[in-house]
Design brief:
Heat Shock Protein 90; alpha+beta; 12 strands; 495 residues; 3 domains
């Protein structure tokens, strides 16, 4: 019955509403009891004054207490009260129900009224029949009451049992309370249904969208205007769906790119090996050429496999980066020396621009791998007569909390090549992305170098970004945390 979220929400709301109505009814009853007693005293007082005058007139006509009570019996029944005639000493002379005659009844003496008459007194009397509320009124004027003895002064006492009064008032208001409670319950149930639907409906939409994701439909996006918590859930779902879609697309691209990059060297290896087997490369020169191509393509496949394994280990968190002080100046000089011969062959000027003795924290070999990759790309894209600048300096990054700025080391590799269009610049760190091969002097490469460089920099807690202007060149900037504070001041980088 309560298997769905909506039914459970509605059921819980109804239970809470019923409990609240019950508690409200009990509290109203408790609060009404004193008010009922007060109203009872007022009603008895209103009835007692004319009754006292009636008793006085009947007594003046010579009627005995029993005869007077017999005359008032019908009035008592009509009023729903019990009438007693009591002496000042507290002895009951007559009772409208004929059960208490001769018993004692303690009547407190009334106080003086503003007009010289005594006012009525009210109180409670516990008897063998239970609790009674009463009002007592003297029937004699003040002078006669003072002159007479206790037995000659009569009091007219009107009694009413509180249970009877309460049940009477409860009967009067019960219908109204029940009708009001029923209307409130129905309205509350309607509101509860709307609230439950407003919560359950977006969750149902999210469930349906999740099932679509499970079926392979990764284009599901939710537009929900429900409460903030549900909106946040929908936003998280949309982000998850985008990530899943991107991940699936990356997997498809990965398979396609790996297949493409492996197919080309395999085709070359198969073709030239088949030529050797068929005797098409029988002469020494042809055989050497075929063997050389097979060797180059095998090396190309080996590099691709090594890069793929490297990325896989990084994704799995299996690559541990050393965290030790690395002087930047020797690192950059060694990287320049490795690329000096290649720069000379390509007629590209290789320059070094250092500002201060920086020391960053990280893995020296991995950072050298990143610099080698960036310099290799720069030399590929720089035409003869151009130049490549490798520079380092310290910079200050403002703190997010507004306190002291954080000092960082910044390494950049800038070239004067053809540049990268803006539509391609945002994708150069994607795996297997190689852009337009026409802008490079060497069209080889699997497009994994920059992806590996980015993973290494991120593993060091740093950042890498690229800036480029078509026709002027490209600049890669690496920002790394310093191992210790340096005295070098920030300076501009020459390009």
């Amino acid at each position: 019955m309560f298997a769905t979220l909506r039914s459970r929400l509605i059921g819980s709301y109804i239970l809470i509403i019923v409990i609240c109505l019950a508690i409200t009814g009990v509290l109203l009853t408790i609060l009404l009891i004193p008010q009922v007693a007060r109203l009872t005293y007022l009603a008895l007082a209103d009835k007692s004054l004319p009754t006292a005058f009636h008793v006085r007139s009947l007594r003046a006509r010579g009627l005995t207490p029993e005869e007077i009570i017999n005359t008032l019996e019908e009035q008592a029944i009509t009023q729903g009260t019990r009438i007693l005639i009591v002496t000042r000493a507290g002895r009951i002379l007559a009772d409208s129900e004929q059960r208490w005659v001769g018993r004692g009844f303690d009547v407190p003496l009334p106080g003086e009224g503003a007009a010289g008459r005594r006012l009525y007194v009210q109180g409670r009397q516990m008897t063998g029949e239970g609790l009674f509320l009463y009002v007592a009124v003297p029937t004699e004027p003040l002078q006669r009451e003072r002159a007479g003895d206790d037995s000659s002064v009569w009091y007219v006492v009107l009694l009413s049992p509180p249970r009877q009064v309460i049940s009477s008032y409860a009967g009067d208001i019960a219908a109204g309370l029940m009708l009001t409670g029923l209307v409130a319950l129905l309205v509350s149930i309607g509101i509860a249904f709307l609230i439950a639907r407003s919560i359950a409906r977006p969750l149902q939409r999210i469930t349906i969208a999740t099932e679509e994701i499970a079926r392979g439909n990764y284009d599901e996006q939710l537009e929900i205007t429900s409460p903030e918590e549900v909106r946040r859930l929908a936003t998280s779902f949309n982000a998850m769906a985008r990530e899943v879609r991107a991940s699936r697309q990356a997997q498809r691209d990965f398979v396609a790119n790996v297949s493409h990059d492996l197919r080309t060297p395999l085709t070359s290896i198969r073709g030239f090996s088949q030529a050797i087997l068929d005797g098409a490369a029988a002469d020494e020169e042809s055989g050497r050429r075929a063997a050389q191509i097979i060797n180059e393509e095998a090396d190309r496949m080996a590099r691709l496999v090594d890069d793929l394994l490297e990325l896989a280990r990084m994704d799995a968190g299996q690559v541990v980066m050393a965290q030790e002080p690395v002087p930047v100046s020797p690192l950059l000089q060694e990287s320049m020396e490795k690329m000096a011969l290649r720069a000379e062959e390509g007629d590209v000027a290789l320059e070094l621009d250092l500002a201060g003795d920086l020391v960053v924290r990280g893995d020296r070999d991995r950072l050298a791998q990143v610099l080698t990759n960036l310099l290799d790309n720069a030399l590929k894209h720089t035409p003869p007569g151009g130049r490549v600048v490798l520079a380092a300096r310290s910079v200050e990054e403002p703190s997010a909390r507004g306190d002291t700025a954080k000092a960082l080391g910044q390494i950049s590799v800038a070239d004067t090549g053809a540049g990268i269009p803006s539509e391609e610049l945002s994708r150069i760190f994607e795996r297997f992305y190689r852009g337009d091969k026409s802008r490079t002097r060497e069209g080889k490469g699997a497009g994994l170098g920059l992806a590996i460089a980015k993973e290494i920099v991120l593993a060091h807690g740093g950042q890498i970004r690229a800036e480029s202007v078509v026709g002027l060149g490209t600049k890669f900037t690496i920002t790394l945390p310093l191992a210790s504070s340096t005295s070098s001041s920030p300076s501009s980088m020459g390009e």
